Amino acid sequence: MRVSAVDAAAVRDVRHRDPAWRGRVAWTAVFALALWPMFVVSEFTPAILFDRQSLAATGQFLAGFFPPAHDRAFLLMLVRETWLTIAIATAGLALALLGAIPATLLVTEQLSISRLGTRRMAPLPAAMRQLVRWLLVLLRSVPELVWALLFVRIVGLGPTAGVLAIALTYCGMLAKVYAEILESSASHTSDALLANGSGRLAALLYGALPEAASELVSYTVYRWECAIRGSVVMGFVGAGGLGQRMDESMKMLAGGEVAAMLLIFVLLVAGADAVSALLRRRLG
Amino acid sequence: MNVTGPPTAAAADAALLYELRQLTARHHGAQHAEALHGIDLAIAPGEQLALIGPSGAGKTTLLATLACAHRPHAGHFTAFGVQPWALANGARHRLRARLFLAPQTPPLPPRQRVVTAVLAARLPHWSLWRALVSLVRPADPQAAHAALARFNLGDKLYARVDRLSGGERQRCALARLLLSSAEALLVDEPLSALDPVLSQLTLDTLRSEAAARGAALVCSLHQVDLALANFPRIVALRGGRIAFDLPRADVTPELIAALYHGASPEQHAEVPAPDLAPLSRACA
User: Fold this and answer.
1) Do B75 and B216 lie in a common domain?
2) Same domain, B116 and B172
3) Does B207 lie in the same domain as B71?
4) End of a domain among B181, B205, B238?
5) Average model confidence (pLDDT) across chain A
6) What domains are there in chain A, each with its CATH number?
7) Which residue has the higher pLDDT, A118 or A21?
8) Is residue B110 domain-shared with residue B193, that is, in the same domain?
9) Nearest CB to B69 within list A195, A201, A205
10) Are strands B74-79 and B48-52 parallel, antiparallel or unpaired?
């Protein structure tokens, strides 16, 4: 009886059509249709970039960049401000980690003891988890630039505002992504530790972290890179560092100085990339 | 229609390690298919039994249930004289430190060192500080080495898990079992990646360890000959039900044939028919 049922199914569909095929085509069409209005609303017309007037303006702007400024006083200032920018980004990220690590532990479902055996968290931990999630959403939904404007009013012009702005926004981002990295990495090892009676933190240290270490490090270094860029943007509203100098140079139409600073950014990002590669190789 | 043998004499004993009566368990997946139905099982402290049966019979779910890592859907379940699922989260979790579940896939993070992976057995008894320090400087490498040596793995103490072969990983996970202080050892298919010689060594080590500490040993096996040669009591599962639960002397080749093939007609009564129904439905 069983065999005949299989045969009948085989006769009905000898081509072994993929049952997922129609769904995939339909969803692709839906996404394409949904995407079109976005370009219309955002007035995306690439032709504008290439008309004669635009090209001339671009050319003028870029021509001012050469040669990059390189007099001694300027270079010394550049080194000082670069160091300040790195300091803002690093201090901000360190403060962000201080909040993000405990928040990750509260948010991640993988290390839940009440979930063990039932696949459902107990109501109280689940409510706690949701509360922290909302807090993280709040922290990262306010752009760092807005936090910076707020802190410039409170603590005055200078790097402190930048550090605080990065700490708050990045705390939300880091905790969210850390929790997602932990949840998407294999839970087998931490589950086994929990099943044998380990505590949450022990299961994190001996199971989840070694499983996800390289992804966590890679994301953290990437966020540090973002913090460097972020600190530049915040410099424009007076939060110190290279950004503030770049704002001044732009207002004075000193293209050479702007170009020199952009070169510094390229070097910083390339440096972050190298650090990330090195750490990943060590952990790999 | 379950054949129950002399082990029920042990069931009369008040101090049972495990007692299951008419226990039903469901899979956590979307369909909530029943994984175990009407399980009656009593396990005394220090008892050694092998769990056999075809793939998908419910062996792993039964082990997870015994490990308090899978909540039964219905029926009576006591472990260590208490009902784990009537306890609060914390108390139930402390109970888990008294048992050890070794899953079929070795739960070892690839980037961890063998010494750390083996010492993780001690986590339920360590403070967080001790666990942290042991990550930097292994707390008790001698004990880890001794445990590994019993599985011929002494030379792998400081190797990384991803440098081990499949069989070495499997034994490394069992070396962790030796370092736990569990009173119930629940081992899921420990021999799937081992050659005959290592298989015998592994079973000997598990059995002598269980006997030395007076712990119960429940071991699921696909190698029926090894199960019969090494375990005094054989519990056979088929389609989520206990097909037979007999001392090894009473296990006949006919019973084994019926268990895996549903072969001889008079055994069909013993092998529950319902498990074939979902199969034919799935094929239709």
Assistant:
1) yes
2) yes
3) yes
4) B181
5) 87
6) 69-283 (1.10.3720.10)
7) A21
8) no
9) A195
10) unpaired
Number of domains forming the structure of chain B: 2
Distance CA B28, CA B35 (A): 10
Do residue B213 and residue B241 come from a single domain? Answer: yes
Calculate the CA dihedral of residues B264, B268, B274, B280 and round it to 10 degrees: 30
- Rounded to whole angstroms, the Cα distance separating B15 from B27 reads 30
**Amino acid, res. A149:** L
**Token duo for residue B34:** 């029943």
* pLDDT tens, residue by residue, A199-237: 989 999 999 998 898 889 999 999 999 998 888 888 888
> What is the C-alpha end-to-end distance of chain B, expressed in Å?
29
Going by C-beta distance under 8 Å and a sequence separation of 6 or more, which residues neighbour residue A91?
Answer: A163
Mean pLDDT per 10-residue segment, chain B (284 residues) = 42 74 85 86 95 93 94 93 91 93 92 94 93 92 94 93 93 94 94 92 95 95 94 95 94 92 50 39 38
Judged by a CB distance cut-off of 8 A, whether residue A210 touches chain B is yes
Percent of chain A with pLDDT over 70: 95
CB of B216 closer than 8 Å to CB of B42: no
The pLDDT assigned to B178 comes to 94
Q: Are residues B165 and B50 in the same domain?
A: no
CB-count burial class (<10 Å; 0-12, 13-18, 19+) for B267 = middle
Answer whether A192 touches B (CB < 8 Å): yes
What is the domain extent for residue B76?
Answer: 3-98+182-283
Residues B162 and B221 in one domain: no
The Cα–Cα gap between B185 and B183 comes to 7
Determine the distance in angstroms separating the CA of A199 from the nearest CA of chain B, rounded to an integer. 7
CB–CB of B123 and A6 under 8 A? no
B187 and B279 housed in the same domain: yes
Q: Are B228 and B251 in contact (CB under 8 A)?
A: yes
Q: Amino acid letter at B181?
A: S
pLDDT value at residue A96? 95
Report A:102-161 residues touching B (Cβ under 8 A). 113-114, 116-119, 122
pLDDT of residue A246: 87
Of the candidates B107, B106, B85, the residue with the CA atom closest to the CA atom of residue B96: B85
- Using a CB–CB cutoff of 8 Å, tell me whether A283 touches chain B: yes
CA B127-B131-B133 angle, 5° bins = 115
Provide the CATH number for the domain around residue B228.
3.40.50.300
pLDDT band at A10 (very low <50, low <70, confident <90, very high): low
